[in-house]
Write a structure and sequence with these properties.
By secondary structure, this protein is mainly β. The chain has a single domain, classed as Sandwich (Immunoglobulin-like). It starts with 10 loop residues before the first strand and ends with a strand. The mean pLDDT is 90. It has 1 helix and 12 strands. The strands form 2 sheets. Strands 1, 2, 5, 7, 8, 10, 11 and 12 form an 8-stranded mixed beta sheet that branches. A 4-stranded antiparallel beta sheet has the order 4-3-6-9, with no helix packed on it.
Length: 136
């Protein structure tokens, strides 16, 4: 039961091959998960380089190839999406009021070992937080 001071009912989303306990646990162990304030928020995050692509919890062997990090956010009107590396916030973009946005950011494996995403509402409350995509 939520308290009166609670701002959300958090969810952990696990990317699994099937809806079975062993597959869900494998997804969690592999880091293929993200957290959200509610079931209404959706997050799709990939990094692509050449003909390769990786998603949340995966590794992209990009070498020195230029890469593009892309996040699609649904269910959050306005606010911001930020791309985080080991140096902290590396890129930030505003979300529109439509509740469905896509943001891209160019990166290379030489610049960062990982990228993760944070989505925040205009007042700063967290809407979603991803596990990282590793770059090698």
């Amino acid at each position: 039961m939520a308290s009166k001071d609670q701002i959300a009912v958090p969810h952990t989303v696990v990317l699994a091959e099937e809806l079975r306990a062993d597959e869900i646990l494998a997804g969690i162990r592999a880091g293929r998960s993200w957290i959200t304030e509610s079931v209404a928020v959706e997050l799709f995050f990939t990094v692509s380089a050449g003909n390769q692509s990786a998603g949340i919890g995966e590794r992209l062997e990009a070498s020195d190839e230029p890469a593009v990090a892309r996040v699609d956010v649904r269910g959050v009107s306005a606010g911001t999406v930020s791309f985080h590396t080991e140096q902290g916030v590396a890129h930030r973009a505003s979300l529109t009021c439509s509740g469905s946005d896509a943001v891209e950011w160019p990166i290379s494996a030489a610049d960062s070992a990982f990228i993760r995403i944070e989505v925040r509402h205009p007042e700063g409350h967290m809407a979603a937080l991803s596990n990282p995509i590793l770059l090698t």
